[in-house]
Amino acid sequence: MATTVYNVEEIELQDGTKVKLKPLSITLLRKFMAAMAKSADITTEEETLNVLIEACAIALENQAPELVKDRQKLEEALDVPTINRILEICGGIKMDDPNLLAAVLAGQN
């Protein structure tokens, strides 16, 4: 019997779509990391949201491909807590990590 080394968590998006989240494969993780790297040049909240939505789209492309194809529907299905959970489970990024927040604040000084 094989042992699974990761957890799968089912969440419900704002539009009622249920998705099972798990860590991304290396292929998708590379795309995810490239999307998140764009955050280095962000100057507005709008740009921040665009990067986070793009990263979520990558994380959800196998689970909800029809939703990912339509940016408007994707945005209607997401909220900030859901985005944070998707990023944490799929990409290993904990947006409310105090160390991350401290690093951001240090970079602004």
- Class of secondary structure makeup: mainly alpha
Parts with pLDDT < 50 across at least 5 consecutive residues = none
Query: What does the largest sheet look like?
Result: 2 strands, antiparallel
Encode the helix/strand succession as letters.
EEHHHHHH
Question: From the alpha-carbon coordinates, what is the Rg to the nearest angstrom?
Answer: 14 Å
Mean pLDDT: 89
Total beta strands: 2
Binned, the helix content reads 55-70%
| Share of β-strand residues | 5-15%
Strand order of the largest sheet: 1-2
* Assembly state (oligomeric): single chain
Q: Distance between termini?
A: 53 Å
Q: Quickly count the helices.
A: 6
Count up the domains: 1
Which geometry do the CA atoms define?
Answer: globular
Question: Notable features of this structure?
Answer:
single chain, 109 residues, mainly alpha, two-stranded antiparallel sheet
Kindly describe this structure.
The chain has one domain (9-102). Helix content is 58%, strand content 7%. It is globular and about 50 Å long. The protein starts with 8 loop residues before the first strand and ends with a helix. A two-stranded antiparallel sheet has the order 1-2. By secondary structure, the chain is mainly α. Helix 2 crosses helix 5. The longest helix has 16 residues, at 45-60. A hairpin with a 5-residue loop joins strand 1 and strand 2 (18-21). It has helices at residues 26-37, 45-60, 65-69, 71-77, 80-91, 98-108, and strands at residues 9-12, 18-21.
Strand-helix topology:
Blueprint: E1 9-12, E2 18-21, H1 26-37, H2 45-60, H3 65-69, H4 71-77, H5 80-91, H6 98-108
Antiparallel strand pairs: 1-2
Helix pairs in contact: 1-2, 2-5
